[in-house]
Amino acid sequence: MTIRPVEIADLDAILALERATFLDPWTKEHFLYEINENPYSLVMLAEQGGQVLGYYDVWIMFEQATLNQIAVDERYRHRGIGTMMFDDIIKRLALTEATQLTLEVRTGNTVAQHFYMKHGFTILLKKEKYYTNGEDAYYMVKQL
Fold first, then answer.
1. Which domains does the chain have, with CATH numbers?
2. Confidence class for position 105, pLDDT limits 50, 70, 90
């Protein structure tokens, strides 16, 4: 498996994965902004043999990093790909000033919560009605 920066040619595969994974999927324009314009954004793709396995988007702003999206294609879940991408994030953050990594996760998404806790995150607080459907989010943090 290879983890590399996302390219414009990858967008169709990423958008398909985004729509299959999230209730409020990001748009093509959102990804184009993240890839081309956002100076704090790092968008990476996990692939093997030309097949997109997953991707992540993390913002790195001085000592603060935020994991915005991480997704693994359902056909390849439970094979350690999410952990490999997460390890890649931590490796890249070690080269920056970041001292903590934060994220938001739906309170109903216990699978993701367990994944994050397994990787050292703790719940800091609950953000009420955070998502467009009114669902709450947990704000989680990991010290680096």
1. 2-98 (3.40.630.30), 103-144 (no CATH)
2. very high
